[in-house]
Automatic annotation (TrEMBL):
SUPFAM superfamilies: Osmotin, thaumatin-like protein (SSF49870). PROSITE patterns: THAUMATIN_2. This is Thaumatin protein. It comes from Phytophthora nicotianae. Transmembrane segments: none annotated. The keyword Signal applies.
Length: 211
């Protein structure tokens, strides 16, 4: 009986899957890697990892300031949902603004602070090299920027992909090629963005926002 119980526990542990998030700093300065809870300094050329399990819904960024490029992840239903967000934030809004410029006008914020790339194995790579980048959420209802990948994939999150000079140069070379997700990608788990005054906020279908 004890053997059967032990075997069942082993099977449950074996089938429980966790996604590895590899974080790399290719900038010319240290990154203050922040998850709305704790800060870890990543040195120039350094890296760190995080383990994301089913049910995770959160974001990562460089620094604790209110204006920051966000890497947002949600793991549910056997998929990793991910996006980059540069929606501006401020003491007011962004509310229902419908463009990046409108959100900047409402909030007085910028949204972008550091070039970033999310590259899951075998799925679509998204890259944001400068303010206004096409791959990122620019306003709350910008609903075409979320991507999905099976939760068996590992993910690389790169700050300043291609090196420090690429942080403000949209045409700089990227270190990971763009791949295409399959056409069987299911619908995203959330479709409406919410904005509140508490931390963390939601600023895109996946994303957790910050005050």
């Amino acid at each position: 009986m004890q053997f059967v119980v032990a075997t069942n526990v082993f099977v449950l542990v074996a089938i429980a899957h966790a996604t590895t998030l590899n974080i790399y700093n290719q900038c010319d300065e240290c990154i203050q890697f922040y998850d709305n809870s704790a800060i870890e300094t990543i040195t120039i050329g350094g890296s760190t990892t995080r383990t994301l399990v089913s049910g995770f819904n959160g974001m990562f960024r460089n620094g604790v300031g209110p204006q920051a490029t966000l890497a947002e992840f949600s793991i549910t239903g056997g998929y990793i949902w991910y996006d980059i967000s540069i929606i501006p934030t401020g003491s007011i809004g962004p509310g229902l603004c419908e463009s990046l410029e409108a959100c900047k006008a409402v909030t007085g914020g910028t949204g972008f602070n550091t070039a970033m790339q999310i590259s899951p194995s075998g799925c679509t790579t998204v890259t944001c090299m400068a303010d206004g980048c096409a791959d990122a959420y620019q306003y709350p209802s910008d609903g075409t920027k979320t991507h999905a990948c099976p939760d068996t994939a590992n993910i690389n999150l790169i700050f300043c992909p291609g090196g420090p000079t690429s942080a403000t140069t949209p045409s700089a070379p990227i270190i990971h090629p763009l791949t295409t997700a399959t056409s069987t990608t299911p619908s995203a788990p959330m479709t409406a963005a919410l904005t509140t005054t508490a931390q963390p906020h939601l600023r895109s279908p996946l994303g957790q926002h910050h005050s």
